[in-house]
Write a structure and sequence with these properties.
The chain is of the alpha+beta class. 25% of the residues lie in helices and 28% in strands.
């Protein structure tokens, strides 16, 4: 609950009509599967920073164990410095966190390119859009995953708080 207040729900720093609401970022990210599929399993895992089949962080065994960002093997970080999970982590972003989720999509074949139209529909909630922007700036500059993805659409929405008894959603803005 404290993490939600700290990172997701808009507080007194925002406009009164948004107190208790959140900002929603959506992104449609196309995966360049033809390029990705040509990469070796090791390259794919190093790009993401996780084992492909278990979802565990590199150097780990369970999908839900903490990222070993300080671990080294042979003088090199176990999770590469340009791995997606490292760059998106709160530790690498001055503690900035967002509530996020990705949903895979497949929309057939792109007629003009003859390639599979598939990827990830990403959503995140945060108390300030700058939280997302700061993380995205870091990902956009050095993320190894950038070789395999193409952002094709983004949007930002203000999601006001829920309705009070007898009221309606957006009442603070519209009254």
């Amino acid at each position: 609950v404290e993490a939600m207040r700290r990172f997701v729900w808009v507080g007194s720093e925002g406009p009164a009509w948004m107190h208790g609401g959140s900002y929603l970022v959506t992104r449609r990210i196309r995966m360049l599967l033809e390029v990705w599929d040509r990469a070796s399993l090791q390259d794919q895992e190093r790009t993401i920073g996780r084992h492909k089949y278990s979802g565990a962080p590199l150097g780990g065994e369970d999908e839900f164990e903490p990222l070993p960002l300080d671990a080294e093997r042979n003088g090199h970080p176990v999770i590469p410095v340009d791995a997606h999970v490292r760059l998106a982590s709160a530790k690498e972003n001055d503690g900035a966190r967002i509530l996020r989720r990705g949903y895979s999509f497949t929309d057939g074949v792109d007629e003009s390119l003859g390639e599979l139209e598939a990827g990830l529909f990403f959503i995140s909630f945060q108390r300030d859009p700058e939280q997302f922007v700061a993380i995205q700036r870091r990902l956009g500059s050095v993320d190894a995953l950038n070789e395999y993805i193409k952002h094709v659409g983004s949007a930002l929405f203000a999601v006001p708080p829920g309705a009070r008894p007898g009221g309606y959603i957006g009442e603070g803005l519209l009254s």
